Amino acid sequence: MPRCSGSVVLLLSVLVFTTSSSLFSQDQQPVSDPQAVSFVSQSLAAMTGGTNVSDVTLNGSAVWNVASLSETANATLMAKGTGQSRFDMTLNAGPRSEIRNDGSSSTQGELLVPDGSVLPWEHQNCLVNAVWFFPQLSVLTVTGDASLIFTYIGQETRSGIAVHHIQSYRYISAATPEATALNQRLSTMDIYLDAASMLPTAFTFNIHSVDGADPDLPVGVDFSSYQSVNGVQVPFHIQRYVAGSLGLDFSVTSVQLNSGLSDTLFSIQ
Q: What is the pLDDT of residues 164-185, one digit of tens each?
């Protein structure tokens, strides 16, 4: 995944481009589509059955594909709330970790690679939901946040399954039209719900290179093989695609819910 730092240079460069103070007064807060919110609520009920989920640890085996190399190793995915996530994998070359932490003042992320280097993510790659691998702690759980806008795209067929297609994005208030459009593009996620079970089948979003060479690099996360764990429907097969290529194929072997994960696990260096 591309790097992403806590810096807000990208967005600030747009925010300072103010053409007129009247633009702010003319900008109206959009609202979520009631049909989209209804489907999201149904999905959350199907996933949790009313059980509150505060954190999760998924242990399992993962196939890691980079270019022509493929490696199988143990891996762990952890999340706390909707703003903290961590992906650890022990490769032949050494440990590799991806960490996201959406603090109260900024969204941050970093990549820890086997040679010991710490690579901060660029801010434009920290605007989509931090928890990309566990739908119960994704944007699907925060419909009460007025800055998160949901739109119902329609019913479609995806991978041979009838799905409800919902789109979400983050709205910045009191911003120029240019900043609003940029933030919407960078934070947009597409959500696909199985029309029969209402369980999520996929999330898709874009990541962005810092040099602009790949302004919109598509990422897809597929969920399947749901099993009930303490009344919560957990996807036991998670696949992450980047630019159409399967980069991570993760099979869950054990699940811990509400274990009280420490915030220190998600600290950014």
A: 999 999 998 766 888 888 888 8
